[in-house]
Each structure stands twice: as structure tokens, then as C-alpha cells.
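BUG: 3D viewer hangs when loading the predicted structure for this chain

Environment: internal workstation, default settings.
Expected: structure renders.
Actual: progress bar stalls at 90%.

Input used:
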Amino acid sequence: MMAASVGLSMVIISISKFLLLICGLAALLFARRAPDAGKPLTGLFTPIAVLIAICVFALSLLWTVAPQADALGSVAKYGKLLVIVLMMVLLRDRREAMYGLTSFAAAQLFLVASSWMLLARWPVPWATSNMALTEYAVFSSYLDEGIISAVFAAICWHLRSLVPGRFGRPLAIFIALIALVDVFFVLSGRSGHVVGIALLSIAIMWELPKKYRGVVVLLPFLLALALFFSSSKVRERLTQVRTDVNSYSTQVDATSSSGIRLSLWRRAIQVMSQHPVAGAGVGSWSTEYNRLERAQNPAHIDINGNGNPHQEYLLWGAQLGIPGVLLLGFLMSSVLKDTQGMGRPYARATQSTLLALAVACLFNSSIYDAQIGDFFCVLIGLLLALGLRSADIQKAAAPQQKYAT
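C-alpha cells produced before the viewer hung:
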């Protein structure tokens, strides 16, 4: 249920997380009765990185400048990182992980199909997004759904060999194609466009002979150029970025989407420069932003608590200083490290998801935010469980094959 919920409505995600937490607590309570309870996490870096990150955020409650409600709310938001560990623990074997992957794929296919139905003006009564009729986003914003669909396309491509049946592999490739077309030609999210270009570039690189892989440096620019002339969605959004940035640089106009981001990023860098060692504490972004804005404009109207600067790296830096940015890098590198023992398709699927997260965090707070953050945490945990359980089967089979030989 947790694997199927991401990308759907927030209500379903919240219910699924609650049930997942109950299952996790039950596993912890009965762990002493299971002799191999801790075996799934033995030798892995990701669970350690997750626990360190949550503990550091909790520790920063001691010096945070944020109101207690904002600080505790932000700790709870980062608590979703535990979903990664829970997925790795509760998916006990490859069969269960495959069930989870199938549930995930079915829900994502439903999401992509619903977006196409909205484009065709078919009735979609389950669409709850306020952008459903204008931007063809089903449950969330076109920003989130663009990123989600781009990642889903990459999963279908890299794990196409796992789809059963004579036509399973071509079907997975076809679904990946319609998901990518949805990202580039239907949805308007610029973050989704950039993530899609990054994932498409690395997928092409992996398919090329090693001596030609250096071309990956040019691939994103070539793909962006091709999409600029072939997709009106991409062309309009990229042109808008240039207009917004030029307007901001000449008039400091922060009313556009890009202008707002640039203004928030500038303030986040100021917070980091004032608190470089330990940051201003968890949940402090809104408090610090309001302080800096009031110093410049006494008539400033405060933003609500638990806000973010629409950039995950700067958000961690504002709350935890330079060590916070390094901590986020450690978390991502730990996931990358744990993919090294996997089979090629599982490793590439997980690495593509991690790349998507790294890119998305440049333009949004993609871990801190509710829906997209849940998506990445669940999918990374699911793919790590699938890849590691599959690797365990191969290791167990190797001695038997050697003995038979």
C-alpha cells in the first residue's frame, strides 16, 4: 500500500505512512524473537546516514531560533527519511519487494494515464488537483507530477527485463515512452523537464560503448535543444526562465516564479553566512527569512512557519550550517554506495532515482516537501530492498552452482 500510495492523493499517503509505522513498530517489538531480525541492514550505509541525519536535526532543537511548533514540525517532516529504512526492513525477500514494485508501477501507470485523460478532456472524477483542468496534474502540482513521471519512465526502462510475458519488455519500454512524452509535452513543470533530461542523458550514456560515454557531457544540452524546438511546453517554460531571471537581475523583481526562487536563495545564503558552523537550527528558515526581510523592509508581512527556500541544499545549510550541506551529501553518497553490490538493472534504477533527487533538490525542497519527499523516500527504500534481496539470492546460488560444477 505504501508503494502504491506515492504519487496519489496526500490522504492515501498519510494513511499508508501510519500503517507502515505500525508495521515498523511491530517488527521492532518482535525483533528479539527473530534471530536474523537485523540481517537486512547489516553492512549498509544508508540506514546509518538516515539515523545520523534525523538525530542531528533533533539535536539542533537545542539551539534553534524557531518557535517550538515550527522546530518540531520540521523534525517530523524529516522523519519521513525513516520510510527508507522501514521499506528495507519490512520487505524481507525478493518476492515481497517485487510485489511492492508491481504495486508502485500500477499506481504510477494510473497516474500517467489519468494525466493523458485530462489532456483528452475525458472525465477524471478522482482528480483532486486545482491544476487538473489547466495543467493536467491529477493529484498534486504539475511540478511534482513531472518529476514523478520522469522517474517512473526511468524505472520502466532500467527494469524492463523484470516484466513477465512475451511482450513484457516492449510494454515496459512503451510505458516509459508515454511517461516521458507526458513530462515533456503535456506537463509544464520545469523541474520535471530538467529531471527528465538528466535521466534520459544517463540512460543513453549507459547504453553506449564505454569509449563513447564521454558524450554524456553534451547530451543534456543536445536534448534540451531538441526539446526546445519540438515541445511548446519546454520552449515556453525555458523562455519564461530567461525572462524572469533578466527581470530579477535588472529590477530585483521577485514576483515571478524564478524571481521568487532567486530571492529565497539569496536569503538562504545570508542565513548560512551568519550561521556557518551549526546553522540557525531545525525549522528556522521562516524565522530567519522574516528577520532578514524586516531588517530591509519594516512593513514586511511574515511568511508562515515551516517554509522553505525551494532548494534542499540551501535549506539544510540554513538549518545546520555548512555541515548540513555535507550531511545531505553524505546521505546521498550512502545510497550510492549501497547500490554497488546490486545487479546492473537494480543499481541503475536506484542510481537514476538518486540522480533525479539530486537534481530536483537544486530547484525545490524535494525531501522536506510532503508529497514529492514521500515519493523519493518510498522509492529509494523499495529499490534498495529489491536490489539487495536480489543480490542475496545470487550470492546464495553461487556456492551451489560452484559445487554442481
